[in-house]
Write a structure and sequence with these properties.
heterodimer; A: alpha+beta; Immunoglobulin-like; 2 domains; four-stranded antiparallel sheet; B: mainly alpha; Leucine-rich Repeat Variant; about 0% strand
Chain lengths: ~325, ~425
């Protein structure tokens, strides 16, 4: 996150803390007849869920309305349709699987705590009910895959997951995107950074990349071994490329050449969907030039299909080589 | 904050009574028009069923071969001429040319656009408008703009002006520019790229002021109307592409199909309704005849927020008392939406309530920022703009939002 955004959030925080004392200054656990606290901003959660708040603050969910990439493509959110998911009102307000409504308030909070955790009656929804703190009610449905699906199926990510073995085995989105964490106070929780394709370890965990020599050919296998949906999953921008170059006995290397691209064509872009479904393997068979002594192979991840290898939107995931002598 | 006078209280009562979405009962003072939503999708699909459609697989591949042979640079001139005759005599020539707008070769796209224009295929206007957004080849883009011009639509001329001012790409745009300016008898005296761009822009401006707010169907427009009905029906969904396509078309047409838009605004189908309200917002005063229907939507919890903004942009003065009640109510999102809409609505009597909010430093910042925008919009006395600039300087509110509001206050936007 850039510095100005953070300090703006800081100021909002300061103003929110004032409000917090008005609503939450009751000592000890709330008694049964006292009204449960009502929340109007995610900054109010920080007072009691500080570490979790900081995780979310560093997430792409938090960034969703400030993301420069999104702002550019949405005409600075003149297109309110984009705002419906990138600065949403709570999903419970419109109901699971229905398109959320755009929010006009708290622009620095993007997809925030209230989006996912406010239930239809204005209470906080958790997995367990409690009369402590924010007095959450239990609403597992809201926090299930169907909650994510409300926003994440426009690019078919949840459909892809449902068609995979992960769905059959009960390995949900949260198993991979909200891993368990032990926080500073020793409590167990679920990480709220929602790491995805902007994080190297997460990206590397998606695939395995192998190459071998077989009957005069170089056989390259790319497997979606760790993403619970297609790899790459998002339709509009992402691409994953298999690149090769051959080196001769004098050490001369040919130029890098793309042998395969995994990608869902966007809108009017020609071509078939070549994203790699969960668990599947794609095989490329290459015929090396006669004088080659070595094949070098790379698997690149690109946030957008135009990115060159030098671009910061490109990430080198794996490289390997095959001796040909 | 409480309503301040008797008639406001009456409005508040009316609004409270329609909180759950049912039509309000009559009360003293202004009341909302009744909310009358009906299912519209089937009717629109029916209307749209006569729109030029996609031919079957075999015909499509036949057509795409003809299109390629007629216009691709790899075909010989003889072959081009022959294939061109076959293509133009084909029953499905419209579909072939429209499909050709997506051909991988830019020369083919340009030729297909040219032909659609020459043949007066007005039903292709929505597709051509959509292609303007997607096209990156300068010559093809210029010919698409020229085809639209030929069909009476000058919405995309600013894109052409942009090309003409781009040193690297202006040459490729010249032939199409020539065609447009000659047809309009608007060739500038001065022979410079800048003069051409200015001339093209002038055509756009006069077209814009001549756009009509009622749809008088002209002969030959049935197919366009049907195509638009089909596009509108496509709004009732989750996928962004049909939504974008329909939005692009409806906001840039020459003759506005207000009859169709009115069906959308009063549709029971939720997405259809929401998207059409946004289209009305983008059309601004051109959509003024939809004002009463938009006003009724204040009684609809789902569309209400969108309708508030649209009422401001179309300038429906009857919305004033309702927006003032929202502004002082306790639904925060509605307060923000009303604060934002009151400026564009353009009614003097909103000035004092807005000023009160701007001056109250303890007000909710989301509301206060929008109130500052609207106050400035109405008074132009600098009070609102100063607050927005001050908040930027102190990094005290989301900077992109503040900058966007200031930009919208610039004259000419």
């Amino acid at each position: 996150m850039n510095a100005p955004a953070r300090s703006a959030l800081g100021l909002l925080l300061l103003s929110a803390v004032g409000g917090l004392f008005l609503t939450l200054s009751r000592p000890g656990p709330s008694s049964a007849d006292a009204a449960p606290p009502r929340f109007t901003s995610s900054t109010e959660c920080r007072a009691c869920h500080e570490e979790l708040f900081d995780e979310w603050d560093a997430s792409h969910h938090r960034l969703a309305y400030e993301n420069p990439e999104v702002r550019r493509l949405s005409d600075d959110f003149r297109n309110k349709e984009c705002q419906a998911c990138h600065l949403p009102r709570p999903i419970a307000e419109t109901g699971l699987l229905n398109r959320t409504l755009p929010r006009f308030t708290r622009p620095s909070e993007g997809v925030d705590c209230l989006t996912c955790h406010l239930d239809g009656s204005g209470r906080i929804a958790g997995l367990r009910a409690s009369d402590q703190g924010c007095a959450p009610v239990a609403n597992a449905d809201l926090l299930s895959v169907r909650g994510c699906e409300t926003c994440h199926n426009q690019h078919k990510t949840t459909d892809q997951w449902r068609a995979s073995s992960y769905a059959r085995d009960g390995i949900t989105c949260n198993a991979c995107h909200m891993p368990q964490v032990t926080r500073a106070d020793g409590s167990l929780g679920r990480k709220h950074v929602f790491e995805g394709c902007h994080e190297l370890d997460m990206l590397r965990s998606a695939a395995t990349f192998r190459a071998r020599r077989e009957a005069g050919e170089v056989v390259v296998e790319t497997t979606n071994s760790g993403a619970g949906h297609n790899f790459p999953t998002e339709e509009r921008h992402r691409a994953v490329d298999v690149l090769v170059r051959f080196v001769d006995a004098a050490g001369q290397a040919s130029a890098w050449e793309r042998v395969w691209r995994f990608r869902q064509p966007y809108r009017d872009e020609p071509g078939e969907n070549t994203q790699l479904p969960a668990g599947e393997t794609h095989v490329d068979r290459l015929t090396p030039p006669p004088d080659a002594v070595r094949a070098e192979l790379r698997l690149w991840y690109r946030l957008n299909p135009y990115a060159t290898d030098e671009d910061e939107a490109s990430t080198l995931l794996f490289e390997t080589e095959v001796a040909l002598e | 904050m409480k309503p301040r006078c008797a008639s406001w209280a009456a409005v508040a009562l009316v609004l409270a009574s329609c909180g759950a979405g049912e039509a309000p009962t009559a009360a003293a003072g202004p009341s909302l028009p009744p909310l009358m939503l009906s299912s519209r999708l089937a009717a629109l699909e029916e209307l749209g069923s006569t729109a030029p459609g996609v031919p079957d697989e075999r015909t499509r591949s036949e057509l795409s071969e003809l299109v390629a042979a007629a216009y691709s640079s790899i075909a010989s001139p003889d072959m081009q001429a022959e294939a061109g005759r076959w293509l133009l005599a084909h029953d499905e020539v419209f579909a072939g040319l429209e499909e050709g707008l997506r051909h991988p070769e830019a020369a083919v796209r340009a030729s297909c656009a040219f032909q659609l224009g020459e043949r007066g295929e007005r039903a292709a206007v929505p597709t051509l408008l959509w292609r303007v957004r997607q096209e990156f080849d300068p010559a093809a883009l210029a010919w698409i703009v020229a085809a639209l011009d030929r069909l009476g639509n000058r919405a995309s001329l600013p894109r052409l002006a942009e090309l003409l001012r781009d040193e690297a790409r202006c040459e490729s745009a010249l032939p199409a520019t020539d065609a447009i300016l000659l047809r309009a008898d608007a060739w500038p005296e001065e022979r410079s790229w800048e003069a051409l761009a200015t001339a093209v822009e002038a055509l756009h401006v006069s077209w814009r002021s001549a756009r009509r707010g009622t749809f008088e169907r002209e002969a030959g427009d049935e197919r366009l109307h049907a195509r638009l009905a089909a596009l509108l029906a496509g709004l009732d969904g989750f996928q962004l592409k049909p939504v974008d396509e329909a939005r692009t078309a409806f906001t840039q047409l020459t003759t506005l199909p207000l009859d169709l838009l009115s069906l959308g605004v009063t549709a029971q189908e939720r997405y259809l309704r929401v998207h059409t309200v946004e289209i009305a917002r983008d059309l601004g005063s051109l959509a003024a005849p939809l004002g009463p229907e938009l006003l009724a939507l204040l009684g609809d919890p789902v569309t209400r927020l969108y309708a508030v903004e649209a009422l401001g942009e179309v300038g429906h003065a009857e919305a004033l008392p309702f927006l003032l009640v929202f502004l002082s109510g306790d639904d925060l999102e509605l307060r923000v939406a009303a604060a934002m809409a009151l400026g564009p609505l353009g009614q003097e009597s909103a000035v004092e309530p807005l000023r009160a909010i701007v001056q109250a430093a303890t007000e909710n910042p989301d509301v206060r920022v929008r109130a500052a925008f609207s106050l400035e919009h109405l008074t132009r006395d600098g009070t609102g703009a100063d607050l927005l600039r001050d908040l930027i300087a102190r990094e005290a509110y989301h900077a992109p939002t503040l900058r966007e509001l200031l930009a919208r206050l610039e004259p000419g936007t």
